[in-house]
Design brief:
The complex is a heterodimer of chains A (116) and B (243). Chain A is an all-alpha fold. Chain A is built from four helices and no strands. Chain A has one domain (24-115). Chain A has helices spanning 2-18, 27-49, 55-79, 84-115. Chain B has helices at 2-27, 38-74, 77-92, 124-136, 183-194, 198-204, 237-242; strands spanning 97-108, 141-144, 147-149, 155-158, 161-164, 167-168, 174-179, 207-211, 215-220. Chain B contains seven helices and nine strands, in the order αααβαββββββααββα. In chain B, strand 2 and strand 3 form a beta hairpin. The longest helix of chain B has 37 residues, at 38-74. The chains are: A mainly alpha (116), B alpha+beta (243). The interface between A and B is medium-sized, with 35 and 23 residues.
């Protein structure tokens, strides 16, 4: 459980150290992609806690969600419709649900542990 | 299996971390609120004005220095040397020259040629005589068929072909361009060439020399090969000083 957190921290450190900046025009694509990635990450954590984790699903979901979100945003920009809101909405809702499930699972685990 | 599960998860977590960091860096421009009051602003403004004056002074001094250097350079020996070099180059025929002059053209006279004979070529002796004559009458720069004539130019027969510095003179008319000092000299040269006896010598070889009217602007190309200096070496001046 600690390894993914380590990965996250290492990623952040690398990102901060390399001082990469992307042009302003692309920053909203990246933000959507981050949202998608976070959604996938929490989905993966939930699946692991529910013991239904599958690596293939997780990795493919990660890339597919990012691509879908970015292309939706791209299409939205070109059509003049704020399509990225759809991605934000979908991922946001899923994010909350996933976190709620994780919280419940952890709570039940904690309470069962205490009862022991 | 457990280990394999984790690697993908860790990698993707790292990628997410990287993305977040990049986005954070891109978005988080330092937003500083300006909370200075009038007096502070005025002080800052004064500071900046002082800085500006200082910079302007610096620019002025640097520009003065630049101008100084420029004048020094203009009067320097180097510039004189460069000028001399340019003059010498022009004298040696390494530069294109434009000036007043006239064009002579040599062409075969078909009326004089016996029928069926092969086309005649200009003999080098004749050409040399012509060039000598032109030089005698004040020619400064000469080119024969586009080839600049310089001090070391050779005119000779190679393989039954008259060549000037390796360039065959077998296409008629052969244009000889001559540049002289002034338009007056060009006029004089024209008159002299019109009555010159060289034309008669060409006449014997079934060639005709046409002397065209002087022109105020004639361009003569530069010498195209490199001039090879084999038997010259600089004088050793140090020895002379000691002796």
């Amino acid at each position: 459980m600690w390894l993914p957190l380590m990965g996250l921290i290492i990623g952040v450190i690398i990102g901060l150290l390399t001082d990469i900046r992307i042009p302003d025009e692309y920053s909203n694509y990246l933000s959507i992609a981050i949202l998608a990635a976070l959604d996938t990450l929490f989905g993966g954590i939930r699946a692991q806690l529910q013991n239904i984790y599958d690596e293939k699903v997780f990795v493919s979901g990660f890339f597919f969600n990012i691509l879908l979100a970015a292309s939706l945003a791209f299409l939205g920009v070109h059509l003049g419709v704020d399509l990225y809101l759809a991605a934000v909405f979908a991922f946001g809702v899923r994010l909350f649900q996933n976190i709620a499930v994780i919280r419940r699972i952890l709570l039940t685990k904690w309470t069962t542990n205490e009862e022991k | 299996m457990k280990h394999r599960k984790n690697t993908g998860f860790v990698l993707i977590a790292a990628v997410i971390g990287l993305m977040i960091a990049i986005q954070f860096q891109t978005v988080s421009e330092p937003v500083e609120r300006d909370t200075r009051d009038t007096w502070e602003l005025r002080e800052d403004l004064m500071e900046e004005t002082e800085l500006q004056t200082k910079l302007i002074q610096e620019i002025r001094s640097v520009e003065e220095k630049l101008a100084e250097y420029k004048t020094v350079r203009a009067q320097s020996k180097e510039q004189v040397l460069k000028g001399t070099l340019e003059e010498l180059k022009q004298e040696a025929g390494l530069t294109e020259v434009t000036g007043a002059g006239l064009v002579l053209s040599i062409e075969p006279d078909f009326d004089l040629m016996p029928l069926g004979n092969p086309a005649v070529s200009v003999s080098p002796e004749l050409l040399k005589r012509l060039i000598n004559e032109l030089n005698m009458y004040g020619a400064q720069h000469i080119s024969v068929d586009g080839q600049r004539v310089i001090n070391t130019t050779v005119i000779r027969i190679i393989n039954r072909d008259t060549k000037i510095d390796g360039h065959s003179l077998n296409r008629y008319p052969i244009n000889i361009k001559v540049i002289v000092d002034t338009v007056d000299t060009a006029e004089k040269l024209y008159n002299r060439m019109s009555v010159s006896s060289v034309a008669d010598d060409f006449f014997i070889d079934s060639l005709r020399v046409n002397v065209n009217k002087p022109e105020p602007e004639i361009t003569i190309p530069s010498y195209q090969d490199t001039i090879r200096i084999r038997y010259m070496e600089p004088v050793n001046t140090e020895k002379g000083d000691n002796g």
